[in-house]
């Protein structure tokens, strides 16, 4: 089964370039293009893609608003943000809006394709550079008192998984590292969400830092 992708960017040349590049990938099918957020919401409803590859800055309805509307519709479509604007404000806004991933446009095609597959499978993915910066921002924040995150109830295997999440690995990469199935890796991550009361993958990264499983980025 091909992953059905909707391309959203206000620059026609960017959309054309992505379409040409993705046309070479056997398991990905571009099912539409949109140049505005409003058009993206409409097309997402009409063609029901697996993944919307979403730019952020567009005239009128921007990518954040469009992401929020698509996610709120409650369908199977996932949103993967692909933008040149990777500042913290945009990252946080995209994640709050319900985006399943956040990438920057200078990433290699193989990384973008891999991210499309990851998000289509229901996983979440954030560009490693963005993840490192989010940790760095967290480290800079003054804490009321130094403390260590308790991992009570977390098994040894889940601790290994949390460490790899903290390093920015996807479920597929975790499965490869630990020689387990992707489904098993995904199940471990889901249990970590519950046990650590983490809302999203970024909060798992922070938990891994607080527990001393990963160090601050250099």
TrEMBL record:
Residues 4-120 form the Response regulatory domain. The keyword Transcription applies. This is DNA-binding response regulator. Keywords: DNA-binding, Phosphoprotein, Transcription, Transcription regulation. The modification 4-aspartylphosphate is found at residue 55. The keyword Transcription applies. InterPro entries: CheY-like_superfamily, NreC/VraR/RcsB-like_REC, Sig_transdc_resp-reg_C-effctor, Sig_transdc_resp-reg_receiver, Tscrpt_reg_LuxR_C, WalR-like. Gene3D superfamilies: 3.40.50.2300.
């Amino acid at each position: 089964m091909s992953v059905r992708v909707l391309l959203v960017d206000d620059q026609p040349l960017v959309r054309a370039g992505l379409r040409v590049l993705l046309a070479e990938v056997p398991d990905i099918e571009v099912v539409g293009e949109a140049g505005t957020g409003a058009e993206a919401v409409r097309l997402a409803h009409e063609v029901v893609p697996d993944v919307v590859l979403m730019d952020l800055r567009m005239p009128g309805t921007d990518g954040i608003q469009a992401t929020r509307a698509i996610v709120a519709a409650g369908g199977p479509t996932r949103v993967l943000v692909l933008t040149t604007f990777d500042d913290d404000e945009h990252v946080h806004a995209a994640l709050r809006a319900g985006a399943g991933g956040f990438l920057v446009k200078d990433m290699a095609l193989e990384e973008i394709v891999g991210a499309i597959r990851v998000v289509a499978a229901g996983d979440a993915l954030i560009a490693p550079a963005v993840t490192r910066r989010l940790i760095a921002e967290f480290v800079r924040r003054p804490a009321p008192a130094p403390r260590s995150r308790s991992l009570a109830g977390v098994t040894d295997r889940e601790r290994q998984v949390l460490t790899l999440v903290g390093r920015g690995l996807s479920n597929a990469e975790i499965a490869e590292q630990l020689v387990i199935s992707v489904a098993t890796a995904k199940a471990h991550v889901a249990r970590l969400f519950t046990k650590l009361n983490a809302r999203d993958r970024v909060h798992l990264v922070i938990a891994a830092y607080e527990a001393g499983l990963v160090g601050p980025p250099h």
